[in-house]
Amino acid sequence: xxxxxxxxxxxxxxxxxxxxxxxxxxxxxxxxxxxxxxxxxxxxxxxxxxxxxxxxxxxxxxxxxxxxxxxxxxxxxxxxxxxxxxxxxxxxxxxxxxxxxxxxxxxxxxxxxxxxxxxxxxxxxxxxxxxxxxxxxxxxxxxxxxxxxxxxxxxxxxxxxxxxxxxxxxxxxxxxxxxxxxxxxxxxxxxxxx
Length: 194
Description:
5-stranded parallel beta sheet
């Protein structure tokens, strides 16, 4: 299964992605980690990405997709993967869809973790990071919502979005995710859905 994981800062994506990759035995694909690794290894793509990142600019979609395509061609991605941090925009989502479609694949499921803003703020303040003031947290949530609400609608229109109410204990959220994944897997195996 190929899953896009969506959720604001503090929603519990880190915890739940660990559960998901273990449950499905698929790799966790974080574009941020891939970019940092390419830079660390001083690859051609890493050097190019560093030029943008060192100047505080976003790495262009074309470069991110190039790094992503290299990662997706690895043998451990044959049975699927969990996309975390990508796509962030409709343009990226369409580019990912095109890339997968060219290979006879698709995003099987977009999972959204939903948490009320005041709970997100409480959770993020509890982490006690140096840059986590209420103002910066609100800004991060605002940016997430600006970027991601269109993505949520995009996947809802495709019929593969599942929203998980993530205000429950970790185990309950994991169970809800497992049910959504199992339901999506069964739907993809149904006759005519291949």
